[in-house]
What we know:
By secondary structure, the chain is α/β, with parallel strands linked by helices. The protein contains nine helices and five strands, in the order E-H-E-H-E-H-E-E-H-H-H-H-H-H. It has helices spanning 14-28, 40-46, 61-74, 108-119, 127-130, 147-157, 162-169, 173-187, 192-206, and strands at 5-10, 30-35, 51-55, 78-84, 98-103. Helix 3 (61-74) links the parallel strand 3 (51-55) and strand 4. The protein starts with a strand and ends with a helix.
Amino acid sequence: MFKVINWVVVSRxxxxxxxxxTRWPQEFLVKLAKVSPEQVEATMNESSYSLVVIDLSSxxxxxxxxxxxxxxxxxxxxxVFLHYPQQIDARFLISPITAAVFLSDASLExxxxxxxxVLRGQTIIPQQLLSSATDDDYADGxxxxxxREREVLQALLTGSTNIDIANQLFVSESTIKTHLYRVFRKxxxxxxxxxxxxxxxxxxxxxx
Length: 208
């Protein structure tokens, strides 16, 4: 008996989801669930999905990171990123369950051709994103991190917000912001995303 394949498209753009709905169900013989970022977890719990497509033109990269972490912990689906930003360093999004990454200038034809390979088990990620997430220079400040600063970095890797981290460590949100400011200066990064990328590469080296 023919088994229906289920995919989730996470986007705030009705235009994009409508466009994909006219192509992908016929092209890949799949059933699409079109949801907002807030609906992902509830939708994933309702049925079995093999692929989650996240539209980064309408979903914040930090939210996308949190969604991917949830999927990695609780589900078996792989993740595809559409409209991957070229202006910011978002390499922290690349994880073992990332099936494909498409830059913002990729056409739907290119995406469709690559997704056919994803269905065969391949991983499609641009070469420039597979290089080391951070330079070795970033490791210079690692020895200067305090135990608490390492705890804050570890919490960042789980997709936690500042308030979440504050609750976990029983301190105020302003204290967490201060820790992050100091961490950013020590490891040579300027954004939350870069800090996550650094932690993915170096945190195991600095833990006690």
